[in-house]
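In this section we walk through a basic example: taking a raw amino acid sequence and producing a predicted 3D structure, encoded as discrete structure tokens. The instruction is simple. Fold the sequence below.
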Amino acid sequence: MTMLMTAILVAWFVSLFFGPTLYALMGLAGFAFLVLAGIPGIVIPQKIAMAANSFPLLAAPLFILMGNVMNTAGISYRIFDFAKAMVGWMRGGLCQANIIGSVIFAGMSGSAVADAAGLGTVEIAAMKKEGYDAETAGAITAASATIGPIIPPSLPMIVYGVAAETSVGALFIAGVIPGLLMAAALMLMVRSLSIRQNMPRHPFEGWRELWQSFHRAFWAIVAPFLLIGGMFSGVFTPTEAAAVAVVYALVLGLFVYREFTWRDLPKLIIDTVETTGVVMALVMTATLLGYCLTVARIPQEFGGWLTALSTNPLVFLLIVNVLLLVVGCFMEALAAMLVLIPILVPTALKLGIDPVQFGLIFVLNLMIGTITPPVGVVLFVTAKVAGVPFDRLARATLPYLWALIAVLALITVWPAATTFLPHLMLDK
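The resulting token sequence is shown next.
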């Protein structure tokens, strides 16, 4: 069965380059294995239904809806104005404001694409107006957008937690320190580049403007603290936090900022349903394919091969980092996650690697993949928003990639960066 599954995976991988829908390919690969291996077809609806019947996964459409509401409610403008008033006076200040804005927005959207398409539109327009070239504006927007799925809430972490049977709450809390480290690394890189490239300096607008911009953005800034604080204190679970977040976003948009009306809700809900449909199709077909991989003993064989190379956890994590960075260049993050989790997670657990640390390493690797060619989805979105050719934006993003890889290396060799807060807050 191992040889049969290997042949199907090779055919599946080659088929990816012809552009078919990914979840259809995964479903067909699983179906082909079951038929050729003589396994009853009743397994297919069983596995697909089991994948969809997940309480933690219920948070996914709710967080997607919250992100859509936040993008429509004028939150992006308020967040960026506050960030600009905070750090815009520094050399390369709007780049720094871009990063600070992404940190705040990350606590609401949980999506790199939402950050790039929503907040990024405001950031890039403001940076161009201040004299930044389009490549610089697009590059820092794309790089800072990767913070979105690391700082809670996070759609990729929900999917990882469900697929790897790891606490979603622990993963959320574990993302706080790495997310802040990413912001710090990017800000240091901007500081270095701003001096060499003589980037513009936005004048300090005064303490009064800083206070007023904070006041205008206050209810948006409170949202991450409300969600994280509620999870920290045990008032609600991550899934319940998603429902609270949706209600909060609706109240802000409809009654506080009044940037949209009830008539706008049907479109937001339809957009959410479309995105959720794609995510659920990926999750369900990937679960079927993961079952087939397990039956064919691919995880066991691959894990045995890796442990034959070395039983040192650090060496294993180094191999995983290289593998995921390469895979992230060619596959969409959620799809890569769902395919590789059944293969890599069992070996990581066998070597004694903390599942929360491994989850953060997994997600961060694939988020870096979203800004690397040829299939960097955040790069494509940002290139469109900035009006920059994809290849030029990819080159401009390169310095920021090194800053993100440095954070990846740090959380790989220093487990406490990801495990300290979960142990402190949840005793996990």
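Looking at the output, two observations stand out. The mean pLDDT is 81. The radius of gyration is 22 Å. In the next section we compare this with other chains.
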